[in-house]
Amino acid sequence: MEVESIGNDMNRLVESDLDTARTLTAETARDRYSLVVQALVNIFAGRLRMVLLFGSQARGGTHPNSDHDLYVVVEDLPVDPLARQRVVRKVLLPILDRLPGPINFVGKTPKEVAANLTPLLLDVCVDGVCLYATAYFEPYRQRALAALRQSKLRRQRLGGTLMWLFDELPATNWELSWEGYLEYV
Hints:
The protein is α+β, with helices and mostly antiparallel strands. Helices cover 48% and strands 24% of the residues. The chain has a domain at 33-149: 2-Layer Sandwich (Beta Polymerase, domain 2), CATH 3.30.460.10.
């Protein structure tokens, strides 16, 4: 009984430490990217729904030439991918000399986010640090993590790329969505 209690206490302590580390990382990231977030808020006003840092900067696996990946959700973005990039990247022009480094944007609409849990969005939900609108993002994160737990997928680095893999491939077709993990014929 005592050993089980110590184990439970250790688990709670580790989970608490992870929560604290994630909070400190989020606070540090919010400070570091506040200029970019404020520029997005100013340009998109009430249309901006969410800004997330993802990729190596969010995971803490950076090198001196690492870029900064931001996942931005904005109402009424252009459908054309090049026009979309121009609209989102235009935000950076007045602040280029004050940026933390090269910034890449993935711009999506709320409808696009809600429609499909893509592999990129799964990575964003697992590793992403919310810089703006945590209340908007957290339900998506929780649903993605629940679907990931159901699927038993795990991430592994293969050839320099992180990939989601099964330990054993399902015998049937499968789908990972906001509703969870589903196997079907």
